[in-house]
Every structure is written in structure tokens, then in C-alpha cells.
Amino acid sequence: MSSELLNKITISIVEGRPDETVDLTRQALVDGLEPLTIIDEGLTVGMNIVGDKFQTCEYYLPHLIIAASGMKQAMEILEPELQSRQQEAESAGVVVIGSVAGDIHEIGKSLVGTMMSASGFQVHDLGVDVPTEVFIAKVKETGADILGLSALLTTTMTVQRQVIRELEEAGIRDQVKVVIGGAPISQEWANTIGADGYAEDAVGSVELAKQLVV
Ligand code: B12
């Protein structure tokens, strides 16, 4: 039963057994589950539970680190699968993406980058804790169509606004569409800081990017 397997994946994340997460992820692929189903209905459900337990002080930082390790190892298996499902042949556009300065959360950002790449975008993933000036320089260098800014902390979401301001100061704000995302981000925040779009998840990010480059 695929739902049983997905539930086992969720539990292995919540209970911090990365090796089991990896084995179950492999098994799910063999059973014919789609990589995105494994991510959204198995792994991410587990990460959200871990996040909630951290918030209520039932879990501490080591729990977060172990859970992230399980998800990252599973993603290493799933990313090539996502890539191989690429449908578009031509480049849909150039994307620069990264987690903003002060933010080291990388899993969601990397997933968005992988999905965009699998959908035909040429993606430059700058990693995590990316200084604002590095984003600006890369947008200039690549002539990017889209700049994706990830922030998972309420303390780093303000950096997204700072990046937009610096794009304005550099005189290149109207040359690139800025899309933002991350757990605390909302459409309202995107409107407040003058971003071109917000997406809740990786699938939504691809749809948004495609709309914006038309
Ligand atoms: C794993 C994790 C960590 C790991 C990260 C490991 C890694 N290599 O990435 C570690 C242990 C390092 C960590 C550290 C910290 N964390 Co943390 N962490 C999490 C956790 C549990 C899961 C995040 C995750 O990977 N989710 C799975 C992915 C797939 O989802 P996602 O990241 O949300 O991404 C999706 C969308 O948001 C969207 N998206 C993401 N980026 C982008 C970008 C664009 C452009 C678009 C369009 C969309 C988009 O699409 C993605 C795919 O669907 C969250 C809880 C949660 N529910 O988010 C807390 C959480 C984010 N962390 C939190 C905290 C407090 C911290 C620490 C401050 C803890 C501490 N005391 O040190 C530090 C801060 C470190 C720093 N400076 O960045 C809080 C933030 C609270 C807040 N409101 O600010 C959370 C919410 C936990 C909680 N409930 O309290 N963390």
C-alpha cells in the first residue's frame, strides 16, 4: 500500500532514522511512486511534524539536524529522478536562486531549484546564506529572468526586501522578476516588499516562473 509506505517515510523522519528514510525512499521508487509524491506526502509531512515539535519544545536542535539529514539523503536519490522526468527541451529562462543572508535552510530552496531545472530553466543555485551583493552580481552576470529568494526564518524574511531594494539601487530591478518563498512567506509579504510573486511549494514555483517569463 503506497499510503502505508509514505506514512512509514514520515515516521522515519519524525523518529530520526535517516538510514531507514533512505531505504524506504528507494523502495517507494521501486514501487512506482512519483518522486514528488514521496517528497510532498512522505518526507515534507515528517519535516513539518518535526518543526511543530521543535516549536513546542518537545524536540531540540539535534532532532532538526537528524531529520534534515534524512530528508537530504533521500533528496539525493530523488533529485536525479525529478531531473529525468524533464519534459521541455529548450531553455525556459534563466533562474538565479539561493537562501538569503543569515539563512542556512537549504532543502526547500534546492527542491525548487531542481524542479525549475527539470522544467527546462537554466538554474544557478548560489546555495545558502548568500550575501545580497552576490545575488545582485549573479543577476547582472547571467542576465537572469528570475531571481528566487528563499527565507525560512521570520528574522531573514526582511532580507528579501533588502535584496529588492539593492536591485533598485543597482538600476536592474525591472530586468528581473523576483519570486520569494519559504515557510513564513505569504502573498501578503510579497505585495508588501514589491516582489513579483510568491509560491507555497516547488510545483507552484515552476508554474509561477513559467507565467512570469511569458
Ligand atoms: C530542517 C530545519 C532546520 C535545519 C536545516 C538543515 C538544512 N540543511 O536545510 C537546521 C537544523 C540547520 C535548522 C536550523 C535552524 N532552524 Co530550522 N527548521 C527546519 C525545519 C524542521 C524543516 C525545514 C525544511 O527543510 N522543510 C522541508 C522543505 C521541503 O520545505 P520548505 O523549506 O518550507 O520549502 C518549501 C516551500 O517553503 C517553498 N520554498 C522554499 N524556498 C523557496 C524559494 C522560492 C523562490 C519559492 C518560490 C518557494 C520556496 O518551496 C519548498 C518546496 O516545497 C523547519 C520547520 C518547517 N516546518 O519549515 C524549521 C524552522 C524553519 N527552523 C526554525 C528555527 C528557529 C531554526 C534555528 C533558529 C534554530 C536554532 N535555535 O538554532 C536555526 C536557524 C539556522 C539559520 N541561521 O538558518 C523555525 C523558524 C521559526 C521562525 N518563524 O523564524 C522553524 C519554522 C521550526 C519551528 N517551527 O520553530 N533548521
How do the strands and helices of this protein lay out in sequence?
Elements lengths: L1 H13 L3 H13 L4 H21 L5 H24 L8 E7 L7 H12 L2 E5 L6 H11 L3 E5 L6 H13 L7 E5 L5 H7 L3 E2 L3 H12 L1
Helix pairs in contact: 1-2, 1-3, 2-4, 3-4, 4-5, 5-9, 6-7
The structure holds cobalamin.
Descriptive tags:
214 residues; alpha/beta; 2 domains; 5 strands; Rossmann fold
Q: Overview of this structure, please?
A:
This protein has 214 residues and is an alpha/beta fold. Helix 1 packs parallel to helix 3 (35-55), helix 3 packs antiparallel against helix 4 and helix 4 packs parallel to helix 5. It has two domains: 2-84, Methyltransferase, Methionine Synthase (B12-binding Domains), Chain A, domain 1 (Orthogonal Bundle), CATH 1.10.1240; 93-213, 3-Layer(aba) Sandwich (Rossmann fold). The termini are far apart. Strands 2-1-3-4-5 form a five-stranded parallel sheet, with helices on both faces. The protein is globular. Helix content is 59%, strand content 11%. The mean pLDDT is 94. The protein contains nine helices and five strands; from the N terminus they run ααααβαβαβαβαβα. Strand 4 (177-181), helix 8 (187-193) and strand 5 (197-198) form a beta-alpha-beta unit. The structure holds cobalamin (B12). Cobalamin is lined by residues 44, 47-48, 50-51, 54-55, 61, 64-65, 67-68, 102-109, 111-112, 148-150, 152-154, 179-184, 199, 201-202, 205.
